[in-house]
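(Deposited chain)
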Amino acid sequence: MRVRLMHPEKDFDPGAELCAGADELVRDLELGGIIAAAAGEDRLVGDAVSQALLCGERDADAITYRQEVLADCLAAPELIRELYRLAGDAVRAERRILPFWSRDEPTGVVTNSVATLEATAEFMERLRTIADEHAPRVESRGFRRFFTTIARELGEDYLTRMHAQLRELHFPHGAMFSAELGRANRALHYVARRAPDRGLLGRLGLRRSGYRFTIPDRDEAGFQALKEMENRGLREVAGVVGQARDHVKAFFAALERELAFYVGALNLCDALERASSPLTTPRLAARGELDFTAEGLYDVALALTLGRAPVPNAVAAKDRALIMITGANEGGKSTLLRAIGQAQLMAQAGLPVGASAVRLSLRSGVFTHFKREEDSTMKSGKLDEELSRMSRIADRIAPGGLLLCNESFSSTNEREGSEIARQVIRAMLDSSVRVAFVTHQFDLADGFWSEGRRDALFLRAQRTDGGERTYRLEVGRPLPTSYGTDSYRAVFGRALEAPRPSGLGDESAAARS
């Protein structure tokens, strides 16, 4: 049986290696808070959400498939949590079975396999009951196929036969084997047989038939020979029942892993609902179309931190390969950049997005290049470190990727930093990579504006005449100032005065000006 709730054709493994650049994504886009809200105290849930978020799907049909399953989950959250607990209990029930010393021998394999199947039989029956009850209520392709598989594979006849066969494998009437005699009367071709019920007299030894012998208590060689005969007779049985055990174990483990993602999605939706922050199912653009259009877009990590919805923004970047974000300090530029990255990752994970409406095209990968704080352990300068990180991104990013840059190459002077950034952006655009770039470098931003590029969107952080920040961004030409004096006034409580020329009084200064 295949679970296939995460993908129509593939299994899902939360323990798989994360994609390149995952650590940078978590750090720069503040995904740690999102993953923590989804995970709660459950490590498997956290791993499942991390894997889906950081290694998103690139196939639109697979994402739509997952969105449909999540819609069923949101319609019946308690059902999903019950199924997740059931799968986890089944996995842990197998782990509680005490191993036998001979577990690698056929007799041990049979004993352990029968114990495992008996321990999980209860969960198979409960799963069948749930499937019968809820199959008519689900609408997604994933759950319809899953419940149909359960009804077919775990039917009443199957469960009845399974219980009967498990009772037989306890050998209540003793183990019986047939064999053929080969050269030198060597026994060959052992086959396990169903032992007949000898009745009460036979079990008491009062009714005997055929030939028999008894091994003396101290005949260790005899007991060892008997054990070897039993292992030969049970070898084929052990293979069959061992496969059945492994199949059941793998099924419940896969069910737990895949449901873990949806439990995390439910947890995240609950947390954002408590923060009065809206979520929407993103619409996917057609293959080959370039789009990122959003209404009410916000930083999900910030919403979880504040416990309320942050100031939302709108982005209309259809057919825009470059999004250049400028404007006042502390005006919400980095917050918007994170919101764009989070929305892209959450959409390709099959999760709802923090916005009132979103339509976007799928990306082959998401990469971040954010300004880093000073690090005393660095063996080279900050510019060298920035260039090294960009070089690693260039080695990994592919056409159709998304590059998010926040104050990149600001560690050098504006002329040099602008030229480096300009060359990086042009190289990325020429390689069909979408770029969203936050910068204070006027020369860089205005240079692209002056080119009159039709594939570029310029957003500018709003600032009122009084210097207040609205945290909203609007379409507008880059300005030659970031209003750093506003930040000075906010910190020190007074305006920043222009420096007075050395050795000159007020009149002399005025005359010189």
Observations:
- The first strand starts at residue 176 and ends at 181.
- The two ends are 84 Å apart (CA to CA).
- The longest helix spans residues 220-274.
